[in-house]
Amino acid sequence: MGKTAFEKIWDAHQVADLGGGTGLVLIDRIMLHERTGSVALESLKAANRPVVAPRQTFVTMDHVVDTLPGRTDKTIMPTGTNFILATRKAAQDAGLTLFDLGDPRQGIVHVISPENAIVLPGVTLVCPDSHTCTQGALGALAWGIGSSEAEHALATATLRVKKPKTMRVTISGRLASGVTPKDLALYLLGKFGSSGAKGHVVEYAGEAVRALDVEGRLTLCNMATEFSAFSALIAADDVVFEYLKDRPYAPKGADWDRAVTSWRQLQSDADAVFDTELEIDASEVTPMVTWGTSPQQAMPVTGTVPVFEDVSHRDSRESYDRALKYQAIEAGQAIQSLKIDAAFIGSCTNSRLSDLRRAAAILKGRKVADGVKAICVPGSMKVKAAAEAEGLDKIFLEAGFEWREAGCSMCFFAGGEAMGFQERVVTSTNRNFESRQGPETRSHLASPETVAASAIAGKIADPREVAA
Amino acid sequence: MSNEPFRQMTAVTAPIIRENIDTDIIIPSREMKSVGKQGLAEGLFAGWRYTAIGGRDLNPDFVLNKPEYAGTRFILGGSNFGCGSSREHAAWALSEYGIRAVVAPSFNPIFRGNCVRNGIVPVELPADSIAELAAQVEADPAARQVNIDLEACIVRAPNGKEFSFALEPEAREMLLEGLDAIEITLKRRAEISAFREADRAARPWVYL
Ligand code: SF4
C-alpha cells in the first residue's frame, strides 16, 4: 500500500517508536516569538540545558510589539517590554538568529518563515503558536506546540508526538473569480464545522488547490487550526520550488538540485489510503463572512444570519443564542445591513503582498466611509517594503487606511493594541472569539477584499459589487 | 522541572460544565503579565471569577469562589475543554491554582498534552458520567469529595460508584512518577545523534 505525503515525512523523521501510537520525531526547524518563546528559552536556561541545534532555531518579535510608526521597545501592552527584553537576551545568550525590531526581516512568524525559506518541503517545523499549520503550505510538516514542548524540542531536537490520523480534503474545479482562499477556508469551516478535522493532519489536494499560488496556500492552511486539525499540508510542487529558489535560507547550488529531486518524492502515492476523505467542488464557494463568535459560524456575504434550525446540527441553542446576543445581530437579518466601526487587514492569514495588492485594487480611487477606522498591518517588514515599492502604501493612505509596521497587532488583544469597546470589525484575521480583538469587540472574519469593500461601504459589503 | 507524582488523590471537585471552555477563558491574555510560568493563578478564570475585567472583586456566583468549594483540586468540565490558543499558560494557571485533574468528555489535544506535562491528569469520561459526578458532589462539596486513582485508572464518586478511564501508557507513567519528558528523552541521546548524522548525509540542506 502506498503512503501519504504526511507518512513519508513522518517516517523520514521517526527516531524511535515509543509505543501507544507515539513516535520520537526529529525536529528540523524551531520558530519562536517573544510571547511564548521567551518562556521556553528562560526555563531551558534555568534548567541548565543548551539548545541542541541553535542554527536551526529562529526567533522573531511579532505578538507584543507595537505596530505604530516610530515604535520602540516600549509597548502599549502593559509589561510587553519585559517580553521583548527577555526574548532578546535569551536569543543572544543561546546564539539564535533573531529578527528583532528594526531588522528588515522582522514580521509575523508564519509570514517571515516562508519568505526567508526557513520552512522547506519535507521538514518538520514547530513553534509554540497554534497557527504554525500555515507553513504546511510549502509541503512541510509544521505544527503548533506548547511551551514545554518547545523546551523539549530545543533541548533534544526531537518531540514525542502522538501520530495523527490522516485526512484528505479534495477541492475539485476552480474558484470563481472574486473568490479567494480565505473564502474557501471559511466555507470549509462552515460546511464541516470547527471540529471537522479533529485529530487529523489534513492534506489539501485537487485542482483548485494546485491552482493556488504559495501565498493563497498559506491562507488556506492557516485556518486548519480553526478546523481542529493537528496540522495541514499541501504536497510541494513546482509552484513551491519556484517560490523558494534563491530565498535566503533555501539550499543553493548542487544542494538545491538534490533537494528538489528529493522533494518531488513527497507526494501522496496514488494508492495511499487516508483515514478520512472530504470533497467539495470549488464552484460551491462564494465570498464568505462570519456572523458569530466561532469560525464555523460562516455564511455567504450575500446571505442572511441563519436561524437556529439551519445550524442546530452544529451549534447548541445556548452557543447560538449567546453568539447572536454578543454580536448584537438577529436571525434573518441581511449580513450586509450591518454597519461597521472598523476594518482590519493583517495577520498571518492575510497580510502578504498578494493580499495587499488585491485589497488595494478595490481601494484605489475610493475613500473609507466616514466614522470607520481602517488599519492595514503588513505581515512583515519585507512585505511592507515590497508594497511600498509598488506604491500600495499610497493607495491605502489615500483611501483613509492607517499603514503600519509589521506585527500581529489587532489580530489578538492582550492589553495592547485593540479595537474599541463593542466595536464591530470586519477583519482579515482568523479568530472571531469573544474579545479577541479588543474588549467585547464584534469581529467578522472575511477576505482582504471583503474588508476593503466593507471599509468603503461603511457596512459589510460584497467585494464583487465594489470591484464592478 | 519535575512535577509532583500523582498516584491517587481524594479532593474537593468543582463542576464547571460548559462546552468549549477555551484557553482564553481559563486564562485571559490580559492576565498573562509575566514572562515566566509563575504568577498566573490569580488570572485563572478571571473573566468569570471577578466582577469586572481586570478587577479583583470576587464574583460570589462563580463556583470556585463559593466557600464550600475551598481547596478545589479537581474540575469537572464540558467537551472540547482547553480549545483555542495553544498557549501553555492555561495549564500553568490551573496547576499553580492547585488543580491536579480535569475530568471532561473530550479535550483539545494540545491542552491535554500540556496538562500531562504539568502534572494535571486529563480524565476523559462520558458526559453523563460527569453529570452524575457533579450531581453527587453538589449536594455537599466539602464533604462529598471525589477520588481519582491513576494507578487503577478509576474515578470514585462520593457514593463509591466507580468510573474507569483510559490514558496512554506514557502519559500515565509521566504523571505517576512526576517525570520530566526531557529527561526521559535524553536517555536516548546517542540514538538521536546517530539519527541526525545519518540524516545530515541524506538531507544536508536541512542543516544550516
Ligand atoms: S497574526 Fe494573529 S493568529 Fe497569526 S500568529 Fe499573530 S496573533 Fe497569532
Characterise this structure:
The complex is a heterodimer of chains A (468) and B (208). Chain A has 468 residues and is α/β, with parallel strands linked by helices. Chain A is 32% helix and 18% strand. Chain A has 17 helices and 19 strands. Chain A has helices spanning 5-13, 37-46, 80-94, 109-115, 147-156, 181-192, 207-210, 214-222, 238-244, 253-263, 308-311, 317-327, 353-363, 381-389, 392-399, 448-457, 463-467, and strands at 14-19, 22-26, 29-33, 57-60, 97-99, 124-127, 141-144, 158-162, 165-172, 200-205, 231-233, 276-281, 288-290, 298-300, 342-345, 373-376, 401-403, 424-427, 442-445. In chain A, the strands form 5 sheets. Chain A has a 5-stranded parallel sheet, with helices on one face. In chain A, strands 17-16-15-18-19 form a 5-stranded parallel sheet. Chain A has a 4-stranded parallel sheet with strand order 11-10-9-12. In chain A, α2 crosses α3, α6 (181-192) runs parallel beside α8 and α13 (353-363) crosses α15 (392-399). Chain A is globular, with a radius of gyration of 21 Å. In chain B, β6 (154-156) and β7 form a beta hairpin. Chain B is globular and about 65 Å long. Residues 62-63, 108, 110, 129, 131, 347-348, 408, 411-412, 429-430 of chain A line the site of iron/sulfur cluster. The site of iron/sulfur cluster has 13 residues of chain A, from loops.
